[in-house]
Amino acid sequence: MSNKTGRYPNILDRGLTAQAGMVPVVGIMNKQRFYKQLKDTLTLQRSGNATWQFEDIVYLTTGGIIAGADALSCVKTVWSDPVLREIDGWNSIPDDTTLSRIFKECRETDVADLQRMTHQFRNQIWKKLQQLHKRIFWISNINRKI
Questions:
Q1: Rounded-to-integer distance, Cα 75 and Cα 99, Å
Q2: Which residues does 53 contact at the CB level (< 8 Å), separation at least 6?
Q3: N or C: which end of the chain has fewer CB within 10 A?
Q4: 103-131, pLDDT tens digit by residue?
């Protein structure tokens, strides 16, 4: 069971968010299906009635680190913004003690899974950038010929 709803409401009529810089980051993470890759790659399984799964914790912590969090309590602070939670489809956010407790369940194989996931995601992003570079180079060559 996950707390990520997967629905992305229209929030244009709402107030601003203190975490506005995270909006494009969340968009990229969702476009690249980061959460799905976490679910498919990570092998640490918690019980079916657990409120938080390992992929939830990794996703939220990754977003928090990108936003500048340097401690698990700061991850909670980043995601406590209601507009950011609504944009990314989270109903609630775990507190820092829950984050810490779940990370303590990790074994060596789980760390290896995270490393493999890092390499897969990094390669996926680099391939997209290479494709984009080829398109930009192709367009610039057409403009030079015109």
A1: 9
A2: 1, 2, 39, 45, 46
A3: C
A4: 999 899 889 988 988 888 888 888 888 88
